[in-house]
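Field reference: "sequence" (input) and "structure" (output). Example, Tryptophan synthase alpha chain:
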Amino acid sequence: MSDRLETALAKARLKTPENPLGMGLITYLMAGDPDTDTTLRRLSGLVKAGVDILELGVPFSDPIADGPVIQAAGLRALQQGMNLQKVLNLAARFRKENQTTPLLLMSYLNPLIHYGYDRFLSDACTAGVDGLILPDLPWRESTPFRQRAYELLQDHLAFIPMIAQTSRPAHIHGLAQEQKGFIYVLSRNGITGGDAEIPPQTLQFIDSLQTALSAPCYVGFGIQSPTQVHTLSQACQGVIVGSALVQKFAQLDACALPAHELVHREQDIYAWIGSLRKTSVREELACE
C-alpha cells in the first residue's frame, strides 16, 4: 500500500469540525465524462471539498456491476474516445497537481489484459495510481495478479477487495489477514446506484466484519445522504459516493450552461459532498 493511501486512511478517521463523525469519504468519477479537462477540474474540486480518496472509473463497454447512471457516464466517456491509456494520462496530470490525495482506478479486467498487464502495472505506478478496484475479478482468483504486482511494484499498488452480504464465509475468512488498503463493502446486493436504506440487518452484517477483518471497511452502492453516513458511522470507517455524485454532475452538464456559470454551479455539488459527513444537506440542484 502506498504511503499516500495509508496516510489518507489514517487521517480520515480523525474527528474534525469538517468531519465530526471521523468517517472517511471516497468519491467516484468516470474518467472522460463529459471530457478529460472537466474530469481533472472536478477531481481537484472534490479534493478541496474535503474528499479523502478519489476513485476514477475506466469506461468499459460491458460494465456488469454498474447501474444505469454509471453505465451512461461510461458510454459518454467512450463516445469521447476515452480509453485506458488516456485514463492513465489523466491520472498523471492529476498527480502533477496533487501529490497527496490517493487515486484509485476502478476497472474491469478486460481493458487491463488488452493493454498488457505488466505494462499497465508499470504505467499506473508511474502515473501515480495508488490502488485498483476490479469488480469482475473475485479475490481468490486475483492471487496471480496481486503476486505479479508485488513482484514488479512491491507494495505501491493496493488491490481493494469487495464484500457483499451474499459473500461466503470462506471469502470473508480469506480476507481476515488482509491489512492493505480497505475493504469495499456493498450496502446492498446488485448493481451500483439507486436508493439504499440501511436496515438493521445490513448494519449487523457490516458490524460483524469489524471483528472478522483487520482492514477498515468502506461502504458503497447507493450512498447519498448525511442520514446514511451517520447511520453507517456506527458500523464502518467510511463511505464511497459514486452514482449520486455522477448523476448530479450529469444533470448539471445537461443544463448546457456557459463555461463560467458551469464552474460556478459545480460549487453547489462540492458543498453537498462536504456536507454528507455533517447534519444537513442541500439535496437538489436545479438548472434555473
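The longest helix spans residues 259-275.
The chain has twelve helices and nine strands.
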